[in-house]
Amino acid sequence: MKEKNSTAAISIKAPVIGLPRAMLYERYEVLWKTFFSALGMKGIVSRPTNKAMIQEGVALAIDEACLSTKIYLGHIQSLIGKCDYILVPRISNFGLHRNMCTKFESLYDLVCNVFRDTSQKFIAYNVDVLQKIDEEKSFEDLGTALGYDRKTVLKAYRKAKKAESEDWKQRVGGGPV
Length: 177
Hints:
Layout: E1 16-19, H1 25-38, E2 42-45, H2 51-60, H3 67-79, E3 85-87, E4 90-93, H4 102-114, E5 121-123, E6 126-128, H5 135-145, H6 150-172
Parallel strand pairs: 1-2, 1-3, 3-5, 4-6
């Protein structure tokens, strides 16, 4: 009787990405989910906003923080320990006179500071068109930081942009995003 080769295939677990269901989530849900899925990663989304989550966020934030920031911190808290990384985008602008609220530029730093005593890892993509960092370049940097090669990342990004555009057309009946 011949012996079968008992060497099992080695499986590398893809990272799990946490997606907070707040701030820019509704706008970028399809882009983010499709991008990470195309890379073979699993995304988990925080549960819908509820009173307990708001209370958790309020307890984590300074009094002067806006309600949306407090809610966001509650969503982050709900993902701590449930994923390998939590996505916190850093978006400064999309070009001249297309600036975002400063909270979107500082959110990553705020989250990293508030949750510094946890072992949770956070990832960001940085969009600052005035500094020649557009969305595609941002996603390229994000994907390569996660260990994927440039070609794979750009293919995933283009697939995600196509899905986002198709979703946008269905929602508003218009052209590309």
